[in-house]
Amino acid sequence: MAKRQKMSSIKLADISENYLFILPAVIIFAIFYIYPFIDIINLSLHEWKGIGPKVFVGLRNFKELMSDKIWWKSIWNATYITLWALTFQNVLAFMLALACDREIRFKKFYRVVFFIPPVLSQVVVGLIWRWILNAGKQDGQYIGLLNHLLDSIGLHHLTNDWLSDPATALTCIAIVHCWMGFGWGFIMLLAGLQTIDKQLYEAAKVDGASSWSTFWNVTIPMMVPVILVVVILTVLGSMQAFILVLSMVGQGLVHHTDVPVTRILGAMQGTKEFGYACAMGVNFAIILIAVSALMKMGSNKLKQA
Amino acid sequence: MNGYIIRRNMRYFVLHLFLMSVAVTCLFPLFYMIRCSVMDNQTIFTDKGILPSVVNFGNYATAWVDGNFGTFFFNSMLYTTSVVIGIVVISSMAAYAFSRLSFPGRDWFYYMFVIAMMIPLPGSFVPLFVLMNKLHLTNTKIGYILCMINVGLSLSVILLKTFFDKMPSDLEDAARIDGCTKWQIWWNVALPLARPAVAVIVIFNALNVWNEFILAQLLLSEEVHMPLQVGLMKFINVHTVNYPIMMAGLTIAAVPIILLYLAMQKHIIKGLSSGAVVG
Q1: pLDDT (tens digit, 9 = 90+) per residue, B26-85?
Q2: pTM
Q3: Is the minimum CB–CB distance between A89 and chain B shorter than 8 Å?
């Protein structure tokens, strides 16, 4: 009996020592992830100005959100950026990956250079492009590089106040977003292309397939899993992008470049509506989870087919 | 035959033209940033040559001292190193336990990290800011460091656990027979063997912390605590007209990360590629 007790106390000490290994990670995770996770849902059901008493209002914040035109406009803006990223950015990335998936000179150089924009911060990138797209004039000459170039090659009518004009501001942000992002897609797609067995291409060649039909019947089907990963990551990343908006145009009073996360930030810092800001966060999270679940279901169908 | 070679060369020419033009598009804004950082507040508006006629490195000194970029730079360095060290130690401990040790609820704790990885939570900075206020950790370096350790934790735990799972445990078993404690095995045997995975974690977290903006902006409102990214945004909102100094500041923020990337690009591309193929 005494022996068994001793055994079990050794075992208990052993197990509690094992818990010590995960303790720091679990503590940090509980404080900085789980607690805010619960609190964002809790706060979304309250009206609260950041100080003073919290007033429980149930789902009222969410009802208000449904008819908040600026909110839905911001979601459309994020969707617009995402559509640019899905088409322009990913098609470019795929074309570049196809071009590099062969014995070609300077391959390493291209691979290194294409991934430079993604390692920079969105603040740095946004501020550089803001300077290039600057619309100001000094002594009758354009300050910004783009307008200056357009002016000097005789396309004066195309010069524009790129980042203040509601017609162009969001598109500029979307294009810079693509400039930053195509390197990710390129690296992942190239890695996928390189796993395709080269014998498949040779077999297709022997069968007399044109390079176009090889592309559609060999490359694309083999690449479906990687393309799906890239698509899902692009959607989740682009919908939540917002720092470029802050660094390129700032948080103005006009809403034509607002995306959901800048709206959340605005509600929190500007009007100090913490409850409403949290409701926006929860609402947007639900949308993102629904979209990624739909994409997951769609991709399972594609994989079976 | 000759026609074939010409056609093939044409194809390579077009291919390189395409790749080169994209490469130039990637590099030009950086070149332009450096070009503008060595001009002064007059020539930046008048000098339109591709290379500046007068080179003036004084902007860097001005940015470093008057623009306070020296402080921002050291803060960024401090945050990056301490968060990366914190993440490597804490996540490797947890990952080692999830992979090698047994205790009740082990899988549940691990799934917690996996699920956290998969749920997008935009706007989580709102409750986090509220929490940090309650804990009196806003405007403290330690508060920001702890937040950033949490940001990188889940992915690092998952990556390392996957690596440990694939790693043979012979050496660890030998160490155990020789009488090493679990802590000694984790630190002296398992962690050195996991070097490739640790390298990936170090690089990605270093990039992430150096470039992080939003939490730093919310939590640190005093200049003595600000990292570069926040300092830059503050600078442009205050001195909107001093472009050369701002370009010098941007260069100070961009160059270290580009150097780190160039030194480590093999690991980065390998890490990403394996992620793509596995994912």
Answers
A1: 999 999 999 999 988 777 777 777 788 778 888 899 889 888 899 999 999 999 999 999
A2: 0.91
A3: no
Helices B106-118 and A2-29: crossing angle in degrees, nearest 10, is 10
Gap between the Cα atoms of A281 and B130, Å rounded:
15
| Gap between the Cα atoms of B62 and A24, Å rounded | 42
Q: What are the pLDDT digits (tens) for A202-242?
A: 898 888 888 888 889 889 988 988 899 899 999 999 999 99
**Six-digit token string for A302:** 């594609």
Is B36 within the bounds of a domain?
no
Of A32, A127, A246, the CB nearest to B150: A32
ipTM score of the complex?
A: 0.90
Q: What is the CA radius of gyration of chain B?
A: 24
Nearest residue in chain B measured CA to CA from A42: B127
Phi (first) and psi of residue A55, to 5 degrees: -105, 120
C-alpha–C-alpha distance, residues A162 and A151, integer Å: 14
Report yes or no on B167 lying in a domain.
Answer: yes
Residue B115 DSSP label: H
Nearest to A43 by CA among A266, A281, A240: A281
In a domain, B136, yes or no: yes
**A148: which chain B residues are within 8 Å (Cβ-Cβ)?**
48
Joined together, the tokens standing for residue A236 give: 């989740």
Chain A within 8 Å of B276 (Cβ-Cβ)?
A: yes
Helices (DSSP H) in A115-207: which residue ranges?
Answer: 116-119, 122-132, 145-152, 169-195, 198-206
Helix (H) or strand (E) holding A141: strand A141-142
3-state secondary structure of A138: strand
Buried b (16+ CB within 10 A) or exposed e, B2-27: eeeeeeeeeeeeebbeebeebbeebe
Question: A300, A289, A297, A239: which is closest to A264 by C-alpha?
Answer: A239
DSSP label at residue A210: -
Residue of A22, A131, A285 with shortest CB distance to B94: A22
Residue B167, both tokens: 């790693």
Pick from A54, A251, A26, A32: nearest CA to B129: A32
Residue B94 near residue A25, CB atoms below 8 Å: yes
Q: In the structure, how many helices (H) and strands (E) does chain B have? A: 14, 0
Domain assignment present for B247: no
CA distances from A8 to A1, A3, A16, A19, A21 (A): 11, 9, 12, 16, 20
Q: Which domains does chain A have, with CATH numbers?
A: 70-304 (1.10.3720.10)
What is each CA distance from A2 to A14, A15, A53, B106, B219, in whole angstroms? Answer: 18, 20, 57, 29, 56
Tally of domains within chain B: 1
Domain with residue B170: its CATH number is 1.10.3720.10
Report yes or no: A162 at the B interface, CB cutoff 8 Å.
Answer: no
Three-class DSSP category at B122: coil
In a 3-state reduction of DSSP, which class is residue A137?
strand
